[in-house]
Hints:
Blueprint: E1 2-7, E2 14-21, E3 33-41, H1 44-53, H2 61-86, E4 92-95, E5 98-109, E6 112-120, H3 123-130, E7 133-136, H4 139-144, H5 154-161, E8 181-187, E9 190-196, E10 206-212, H6 215-225, H7 234-237, H8 243-250, H9 253-256, H10 265-268, H11 270-279, H12 285-308, E11 320-325, H13 332-342, E12 347-351, H14 362-375, H15 383-386, E13 396-398
Parallel strand pairs: 1-4, 4-7, 8-11, 11-12
Antiparallel strand pairs: 1-2, 2-3, 5-6, 7-13, 8-9, 9-10
Bound molecules: adenosine-5'-diphosphate and magnesium ion.
Adenosine-5'-diphosphate binds at residues 9-11, 13, 188-189, 214, 217-218, 229-233, 326-328, 330-331, 360, 363.
Amino acid sequence: MIVAGVMSGTSADGINVALVRVPARGRGRPRHTLLAHEEYPFPAPVRRAILAMMNAELARVADLARLNFLLGELYAEAVAKTARKYRVKIDLVGCHGQTLYHQGTAELFLRRKLAVTWQTGEGAVIAARLGVTVVTDFRPADIAAGGKGAPLVPFLDYLLYRDPPHDGRAGRAGPQRIAQNRIAQNLGGIANLTAIPAFASLRQVIAFDTGPGNMVIDAVMDELFGKRFDRDGKVAASGHVLDSVLSQLLRAPFFRQKPPRTAGREEFGREYVNRFLQFCHGASKPDILATATALTTQSIANAIQRFVLPRFRSRQRGNHQMIASGGGTKNLTLMAMLREKLAPLGVELHVSDEYGIPAEAKEAVAFALLAYETWHRRPSNVPSATGATRPAILGKISYA
Ligand SMILES: Nc1ncnc2c1ncn2[C@@H]1O[C@H](COP(=O)(O)OP(=O)(O)O)[C@@H](O)[C@H]1O
Ligand SMILES: [Mg+2]
């Protein structure tokens, strides 16, 4: 069976499509093969509209309805284009959709405590255009089961990175090799990690959002240079970190919060960046960029020290590996800072490409596999990661 996974993340930079082959039958967890991956940037007006719709003051309900159908069309076109290019016939689509609002922790609303989430991109449109079954809206079922609705990628992280591998790939952790504690770190708009101790069962996996990934860097670039992002980290590379600003930022309650925890534009969006820029008042542009970049890397290192290393049995140096993915891996300054901050913790930095998954494709692959599980009526949330009280079958199905 060939499943297309479609991801468009909080960066609102574009659509990632992964075509994944999953054996139709077979016992246990399926072994999958990534056949192709393509990325389609959103046209600038679409990106502006998406960002506006995430802003309560600017969003109008008619436009929200329109955006839902427009994104359905764009997702379908992206999948169709990829399938044509690689001459592949698709059997199923898993589409994450565009998050407009995510509040994983219950808050009072009309006298009820509710956790809520909202992804847009109409599945019925995708199904109609492509003529195949489509799974969308993965997060609500986990929230309904008492979870935070995020993160959902740990399902794939566990399949990919648990060491020793227990899906039949024999013998890689022989006596001559010590099993690794692994941290899958995604560097999207938000940065989130999945920690998989050596020999872990699925229940021992922890996962949470560490804080901003590229979101603050992108917004600062937009504000100071009118650019979408700091290409290759060049601007940050020419600046110096403003240490006092950085330590002030890291004192925010979010960074102290115990996992599971989630973040989004609600925490690190426009308002946050305005405050950040006020703190940096008078500093040079490169220094501001360097500081935004260090905020990402230092918050990751702190989270690992506080919440992850205590869960790893082996404290031996060199037994901890981080495997990074997401667009942030292309930011060389971010990666250099991260490597430097992880070294004293005994964590070695790698990129997911080394493990056969291009860094920018991983989340799209995850939603292909989540759709596959849903198609088979199997649960795929990881309760230890989301805080759900039980496993849940994720998503809603649109039939062609
Ligand atoms: N060449 C590059 N140099 C620096 N940053 C990059 C580069 N390519 C992509 N990025 C960063 O990656 C982000 C997109 O990452 P992605 O994993 O798609 O995030 P999301 O899941 O939030 O959409 C961009 O907004 C940008 O910040
Ligand atoms: Mg993206």
